[in-house]
Amino acid sequence: LSPETRTAASEQFARLSRRWVIVFTDDQGIGEWRTSLMAAGLENVRVGAWVKPGACPQFTGDRPAMGWEAIVIAHRPGKKRWNGGGKAGVWTFPIVASSAPERVHTTQKPEALMEAIVRDFTDPGDLILDPFAGSGTTGVAALRNGRRFIGFEKDEKYHAIAIKRLGYTREQRTLAL
Fold first, then answer.
1. Average pLDDT of the chain?
2. Exposure pattern of 98-119 as b/e (b: 16+ CB <10 Å)?
3. What confidence score (pLDDT) does residue 59 get?
4. pLDDT tens digits for 122-141?
């Protein structure tokens, strides 16, 4: 993302969010997102990590491959509450393999990861916004877990895929035993 897009997105996140703002980024973007989110009036809370078993190797072989992705976690000023209790902000889920039939986007997150994030940071009935929706995985996780969802995707191909995936998604309630 350009600095202008990151700034504009951060301003809208601050304007629209009621609680948490979660941003996936590479290690280079951590400081840029934290600075932008704080300039927009949000509080920097933590940097979490998505550990990616099965991540792509560094094809050039001249340096280590990235086996994780940063998750910049911000919040509106005020009291914070999340559903993760005292657990660490580390989520370990394998990538969606490029050979998998469900892999339809280059930066697609695994559904299990996004469901865990949705459950940790939101409550049933909450509204989740994904302004970079890609193939709609965040929306699928939101709907399955009883949350509402608004997503934006500028690429028509991925927008169509997201609409199709969301159309097939139904809430999956858990049973209390």
1. 91
2. eeeeeebbeebbbbebbbbbbb
3. 85
4. 999 999 999 998 889 999 99
Is pLDDT of 101 > 90?
no
3-class secondary-structure state, position 5: helix
CB 25 within 8 A of CB 87: no
The residue length of the chain stands at 177
Measured between its terminal Cα atoms, the distance across the chain in Å is 45
Q: Residue 41 is encoded by which pair of tokens?
A: 């009036």
The predicted structure's pLDDT at residue 134:
86
Q: Mind spelling out the 3-state secondary structure of 100-152? A: CCCCCCCCCCCHHHHHHHHHHHCCCCCEEEECCCCCCHHHHHHHHCCCEEEEC
Report the range out of 4-13, 56-65, 162-171 with the highest average pLDDT. 4-13
Query: Who contacts 74 (Cβ-Cβ below 8 Å, separation ≥6)?
Result: 13, 20, 21, 22, 23, 34, 37, 38, 42, 43, 44, 45
φ/ψ of 127, rounded to 5, equals -100, 125
C-alpha distance from residue 155 to each of 8, 12, 60, 160 (Å): 19, 20, 30, 9
CA distances to 133, 151, 152, 169 from 163, rounded to whole Å, are 10, 10, 11, 10
